[in-house]
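Subject: sequence -> C-alpha cells, single chain

Hey, anyone have a minute? Need the predicted structure for the following. Not urgent.
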Amino acid sequence: WEQFTDIAEKAGCFVVGRKTYEVVKEWDNHSYEDVEAERLVLSNKENYEVDENFTLVDEVEEAVQIAKNNNCDLVVTGGSEANSSFSEKQLIDRFIINVEPVLIGQGHSILADKCNQELKFVRMSRNNSILTLEYVSK
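Reply:
Had a minute. Here:
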C-alpha cells in the first residue's frame, strides 16, 4: 500500500475500477481517501455515486484527459476490467507488479480476458519481503 501511495502521489492522479473502489472502501487499515492525488473511479454503471473527494468517469479517455488537464501522470490501479480497458487501448506504458508473501487460493486476475500485451523487463527490486517487477510496453 505504501508503494502505491508513493507512486500515486508522485503521479498526481490515479484511477480505480468501481469494484476495486468498493472493496477498498471496506478495508480497515487503508483508504484511497489518504492518497493525496486526484482520485478517479471508472464505471459505466448508470447512476453510480462516488464519495465526495472522487470523480466518476465512464471512459478511459476521460480519465486520461482529466490527468492531462491537471498536468499529472495517471496511475491505473485496478481491477482487471479497468486495467484491461486501458491496456486494450494501448494507454499503459509501464507495469509494476508486486509479488507478496501471501498465497491466495482464489485470487483475481490483473487483466480481464482478451488482453494480450508484450512487455519489456526494466528492473526488479525488493523491499523487505515484497518483490517488485517493473516492465514497459514494447
